[in-house]
Structure formats: C-alpha cells, structure tokens
Amino acid sequence: MIVQIRFIDSIHQLKAQDWNQLCDDGYPFCRFEFLAALEDCGCTTTASGWKVAHALVYEQGQLIAALPGYVKTHSYGEYVFDWAWADAYNRYGFSYYPKWINAIPFTPCSGPRLLTRGKITEALIDALSHALSQFCTSHSYSGWHCLFPSADLSELWTTTGAAQRVGCQFHWINHSYASFDDFLTRMASRKRKNIVKERQHVRAQGISFNVKEAAQITAADMELFYALYRNTYLKRSGHSGYLSQDFFLRLVETFSECLVLVCAVVQRAEHDPVIAAALFFRDQQTLYGRYWGCFEEYQFLHFETCYYQGIDYAIANHLRRFDGGAQGEHKIARGFEPTMTFSNHYLQAEEFRPAITNFLQQEARQIQQYIVDARELLPFKREH
What we know:
The protein has eleven helices and 15 strands. The chain has helices at residues 16-20, 32-40, 83-91, 122-139, 151-158, 180-184, 189-204, 219-237, 245-254, 301-316, 353-375, and strands spanning 4-8, 50-52, 54-59, 62-67, 69-72, 99-102, 115-116, 143-147, 163-173, 207-213, 259-266, 274-282, 286-294, 321-323, 337-347.
C-alpha cells in the first residue's frame, strides 16, 4: 500500500468537514469541534505538555485516514499509567519523554483512534507503524502509544510489535429496560433496597434534579458548571483542573448537540441554588459520564448525579451503554459491569521491550482474574 503520511501541529491545518468525514460512527471525542476546542482554549499546547501532532494519511492525494496525536512531555491526563516505565528509563540513563500518543486528551473513553471511512487493513496498519517509528526516531521520541482503542484496532497494532496492555473500567449496559425500576428488578433484594434507599435519601435532603441537553444548555449554565468543576478540582487536587472555562463555553457554541447537563438543586427558603452538576456526552448508542463538580457535599449526591441520573437518561433515550469513566469499584454494586480496555505501546529502545512485554503479560493475567472476581460482586440475581 503506497500512502503518504504527514503530521500537523494544529487541527486547523485541515478543514472541519475534511476531518469529520472520517468520523462517521458518531463517537463525539474525535470530532473536529472537540479537538479544536481543546487546542484553541489552551488545554492542548506545548506549554501544557500536549503538543498537537495529528497524523494524516493520504492515498493518491486523497485524505483517507487520521490519527489524533500529541507529543507528551509527561503522562498526566492519559489514564494509562506508565510513570514506572519513565522511572526505569531514567535509572538506565534514557529519556522516556517526549513520547507520541494516539489519544483523546483527558478522555479515558474507548473508541476509534484510527479515523477512516474505509476498512482498516493490515497494509494500512503496517504503513502507519513504519511511519510512526520513523517519526519518533527523527524527533528522538522514546516511542508511540495508542490509548483506549477498540479491541479490534488494538489486536491489529499487536501485529506490528506494539505491545498490548489491558485495563478495566465499569460500564452500565442497557438490557432494553423500560424504566429504572425495571433495571432494579434484575437485582437481588438487598442490593435493590440499598439503591432505593440512596435515591430516597438524596431527595429527603431537599435535592431535585434538572436535566438539560443540546441547545437547552446556555453559556450561563456552562459558566456555573465550570465553577463547580473548578471548586471540586481545587479541593481534591490543589489545582483548577485540566480544562478551562473557555473550553466549556466553546462546547456550548460548537458542540452542544452532544451534551447533557444534570444539575442538582437544593430547596431553600430564599432561593433554590444549584449545588452540584455532572456533564455528559452522548452519541447514538452511548452516554459518557465525563465531568463533575459540587459546591456542597451531601451523602449519596455524587452517586445520584453522576450514575443514577445517567442511567435514567440512558433508559429514557434508548442508549445501549453508559460509560461512567475511569476506575471506581463503587460502581459494581450499582450495576456497572467490568469491561476490558486496551492500549498499545511501541518503544524505540529494543532493550526495554522484553521487560515491558513480560510486565504487560503478567498484568493482563491479573486484570483478567480481577474481571472474573468483579463479576461475582455484581448485584444481579443469580441465574440457575
């Protein structure tokens, strides 16, 4: 396969329609509008350690594929943890950074990472692997990585020598439920009662919920959400978060059709202030829980705002899946099922590959057993 591959340092070097014509499955985070918002609002810059380096693939002068990509000088905001690898490089006098990653910044949501309207062939994968290795060599990058691809793409990358790494998240699956109560009927009695108690307790504290989506969400709504998001990051991490207010406002302007905003309101004599909110994205099949923030903490408020409200929305809108984000074993008791995630890693320094491959194989066995064990903890009735 004869293709030409070039790298661009701004998504604006391509027209939005040319990029988006490669994004035909609805997955929101690869779309031009989302990636441009990150870039234009200062979230993905050289200064932030996320230098834009998207790979474009041409055949006979026609754009046929793209890889959202970034040159990284750290591993923050990736959710595939390789700090120990960087430490090992340093101990042996090597530099792990910079590295190139094929990923969506700050977004641990599995989905397309090689954008193409055509079939992904082994010839295309081989050409890309060769080009990525050359790119890393010419710029002295330690290697290239693909984070949260589909299982099929991850398997294809392994044929090029890019070692596969697996992880585990917890996703809610819609088994054609008619309502939240219908979902609860699948559960064992004690587990069902616990969830009912949690939801009732939130409302007993005088809290209700407003759900807005798409054009219903205003700039004022998003300014308030950013204040909640920032407040929570400051309390938890000591910084204001990876994303700026300008980024969230840009989403309202250019990308609102994919947004769902859930606001928690507490009843008070003088007024009913919003005390917490969660921002979700959606496509035709999946709801993605992404960001959360609060001004005041109430028991079970996070579970209700981020999970139960999301399940309600997914059922009402006939979405097949609810991706609640990275980590969180507390999701298991609430009906979120362990789901395997993938990444691939190609290191330029051959001497490190055997050790990393051995580590990943051991880790994979542990993750696979963890998923088996986690499934035993799901709250659903046992099938005899």
